[in-house]
Amino acid sequence: MSISTASYSPKEFQVLIAEQDAFGTMEGSNDYHAMDVDSIGSPSLNPTQALDVRTGGRTLLVDDFFQDSKSAIKELSVSGTATTEVLDMLLENIMGEAETSASGVYTFASNAVTQNVGVGDSSQGGTLISLVIKSAFGTNADLSFKDCVVTSLNLSGDTSTEGGRVKFSCTIKTGSVVEDLTDATTTVNTAISANKYVMSSWVAGYRQLVGVNNLVVQSFSLNIENDASFAGLVATGYELVSRAGEFSATLDSTIKYDDKCEDFFEKLNNQTTGSTGATLLNHQAGMADANFGISMPNSMLTNVSFNEGDIMMLDVSVKALGSGSTALLEVAC
User: Fold this and answer.
1) How many CA atoms lie within 13 A of 269 on its CB side?
2) DSSP states of 13-73
3) Which of 82, 124, 128, 219: disulfide with 166, CB 3.0–4.6 Å?
4) Is residue 237, in this structure, part of any structural domain at all?
5) Under a CB-based contact definition with an 8 Å cutoff, are residues 23 and 124 in contact?
6) Does the reported pTM lie above 0.85?
7) Count of CB atoms situated within 10 Å of the CB of 265
8) Residue 310 lies in a domain
């Protein structure tokens, strides 16, 4: 039998995602959207393996080997360019919003409670994702995962890289058994969108950190963390996904050092309980659909440092704070 002469470029592979309607069932009706990814990373399948040598011998025997895939937490990392349809799904998922409430403005409230998804929940649109790594090979090679949740999402941009185009990277986890590692039936319903976002849409009056506006922003990096815990091991994997830990939103930014921010070292040093300011990067005062923007109604400084370049810059880090029933974080796209 001769060898195969076929070779494939890494750029021929795709990542597809769809909003999943029911726990335990790979999405079959909602559109699968192609993500504009920079590269395809290998999923971490994390099977449990026991490779201990039994007493009475010096080698691992065939009968000694044990493996279990039901208790494994599968993890995938994806990065690329933020497009409207895909970013909608990622934000909807990590913010815990239902599919029917999607408005292009995604909010996590200060008084949010524990979120649970599990077996028996028949309508979970938006809170779960089905994901497929589509192989260039075409047959018996697609990797399909169900019951996925976004646990970490980073949105970033740099005016010196791709004109400040907004990029994303995310970590996705699932506690369910893998749907299929030899699947080839999933098709792309919606190709990569041309709707992308750039930092140049933000205007001076709404480039604001901790209450100080009219800042000149060179780069930003928004980090959203909403980890998931998996419980109740059954034959299909874990039967419950819970988000009970801290929902964290932090923003790192590089800004021009000038009279607008020269007192940021003092602000950092003299912060007190309740002395917070709003952080806003947007084209107007309020968040709006189809316009990329970030709003933290209450935020505090966590770091200020010099960044020496052709001109003096400041690296500034802030963290979103809750206040009653107001929003902790809003992101529009």
Assistant:
1) 5
2) -EEEEEE--STTS---SSPPEEP-EEEEPPPB---EEE-PPPTT-SS--GGG-EEESTT--
3) 82
4) yes
5) yes
6) yes
7) 14
8) yes
